Target: Phosphoribosylglycinamide formyltransferase
Amino acid sequence: MPQVPIVVLVSGSGTLLQALLDACADPAYGVRVAAVGADRDGIEGLARAERAGVPTFVVRLRDFPDRAAWDAALAKAMTAHAPRLVVTAGFMKILGPRGLAVAPTVNTHPALLPSFPGAHGVRDALAHGVTVTGATMHLVDDGLDSGPILDQRAVRIQPDDDEASLHERIKVVERAMLVEQVGAMAREGFRVEGRRVRIGS
Model:
């Protein structure tokens, strides 16, 4: 089976990346992590890639005069690996137009969008008092967690949950969802119809 090349962008521990790397070990999955990029040095996400023999690159915002220059450099670094798909896996920077133009880009978010977008989706859901939250996978556009939704998985909030315990349970479904949907997109193709993403050509 042909292996669809993807670039994964990380900013931290890389647990979502690891789930993808593990899935890619099976040739039938149909995906190859061509490179892992980051916005900072010395993170476990990069170490995971290096242990797996995957090329890495780092493009730090502080090394550029403005976000546009950083975005152009990030786009160039990604393009060098010819990805058919880009996955932002805990990547804590918003891509600009150059970065988004490299390839369709997907992201996961620890809440049921459009509720609780932004960097504190788990904390915000708890503070609001909802009884069900979860994880969302969506295409990335130029807004904040606002692109067309690919999939959502619900997680019930327990009475004794705090931010850490709830986030850990969300991460379990988030990883499974990411692996399943990236594989389906690679093997079957996808198309966007308005706000809906259809898997299959």
User: Anything to note?
Assistant: Helices lie at 15-24, 44-51, 67-79, 97-100, 121-128, 163-188. The CA atoms of residues 47 and 121 lie 27 Å apart. Strands lie at 4-10, 31-38, 56-58, 85-88, 105-109, 132-139, 149-156, 190-193, 196-199. The domain at 108-136+151-189 is CATH 3.40.50.170 (Rossmann fold).
